[in-house]
């Protein structure tokens, strides 16, 4: 994420890049947010024991990630989320939903937890049979009628409703379910997904998704993946294609239901169902990758055609650097949301009313490889997302005639007194700094220093190998170091220790 990405760091304003006047606007960082607390930089503690209720074995009620305390659960592995949502922006209840979650028990379970905050639960079933449910803070505790045996595949269905509330964090700011003048902007890194659907809300448990979203007439819902039904476009366009058509929104005077399918595993924080009056454009990049772009016409700095073309250009160029595009479509969503960030929601990042400078597009689309396809196992390793995307942003900035990579590195390195950069180790920045400057800039500098050390050919081979070998899964910093050493043929533990885990400015 960038300062339009979901980390919620303060907005960084960047000069507009050359050659895209229609998109020129202050940039932002990439990501979604989490509840931030102390500044501890110790390694995350091991998962706590299962919750202490009675009635037999249960899985842990958290993923054990100290950076996002309380997020995630144990005892099962989700394979698929099927979300049926009726969204009425500004209504007495903005959301009526049914979540059907297919999972496999990884241990014997008499009960298990889902993450869910602030919504009313009407009914829970497991494999079609009524189940008992209990609320405890942000936990929905489910007790099936019959215990689930280890390795059993099961389906839990939750019928719920209410008005999701945005997460408001003293460090990260406001994120999650954000009301706009005509709809809802949904961007959830790191801990906002369970404000709008029950889930195992931690990136270590990725799953495929189906969305069926019903919205009032005249509005459009844009989600991840690809549509399996016609999609209304608020600009009056009608675009026939190989699959579902883009149709004029005015063609329907009743509520409209749109379906979207995510075929590749996705972390919960990367899910979006952004609703508003969008112009929508589809097609393929020159390299043949399907692309879907959506722009709220009330955002004056961004034209749909220019945004669509830039998404296509950037995607194809990043393929040359990082290897095959990891998903079934690319694109982006620009909405009139009053937030100061963009987020790398899978398949198509979301950008706020600030619009999107093309270097920010490069940042968010680079996340499709680094962060979305290869996700973090724990949030301590967030530099594997943000450092990589920041470096891609710098590459693109140089490409369009702005500051060179080396000049960017040299300028940052020369700032020897920058405590935010040199006193925070990006490989374990602590919860309070997980979206701070060190994770982004020192993370990007680490990659540039690695490139200078191993040479261009080996460097880009390292990045492509990492993206290929960890595709649609997750990774850790030690695993990346192993790949870098294997591909380069060099021992790099001392190098990475200095750049990622030591306080102070590494020697050159």
Share of residues in strands: 25-35%
Strand order, sheet with most strands: 5-4-8-2-1-12-17-14
CATH architecture grouping? Sandwich
Average pLDDT number: 89
Question: How would you explain this protein's 3D organization?
Answer:
The structure is a single chain. The chain is α+β, with helices and mostly antiparallel strands and 508 residues long. The chain has one domain (1-508): Immunoglobulin-like (Sandwich), CATH 2.60.40. Helices cover 22% and strands 26% of the residues. It is built from nine helices and 25 strands. The strands form seven sheets. Strands 5-4-8-2-1-12-17-14 form an eight-stranded mixed β-sheet, with no helix packed on it. Helix 6 (437-454) runs antiparallel to helix 9. The longest helix has 19 residues, at 304-322. It is globular. The chain starts with 75 loop residues before the first strand and ends in a 7-residue tail after the last helix. The model is unreliable at 4-54 (pLDDT under 50).
Annotate the secondary structure layout.
Elements: E1 76-87, E2 95-105, E3 112-115, E4 120-126, E5 129-130, E6 132-136, E7 139-143, E8 153-162, E9 167-169, E10 173-179, E11 184-187, E12 207-215, E13 220-223, E14 226-227, E15 231-233, E16 246-248, E17 256-266, E18 273-276, E19 279-284, E20 290-295, H1 304-322, E21 330-334, E22 342-343, E23 350-351, H2 358-366, E24 374-376, H3 383-399, H4 405-414, H5 419-422, H6 437-454, H7 456-469, E25 473-475, H8 477-488, H9 493-501
Parallel strand pairs: 1-12, 15-16, 20-21, 21-23, 24-25
Antiparallel strand pairs: 1-2, 2-8, 3-7, 4-5, 4-8, 6-7, 9-10, 10-11, 12-17, 13-18, 14-17, 19-20, 22-23
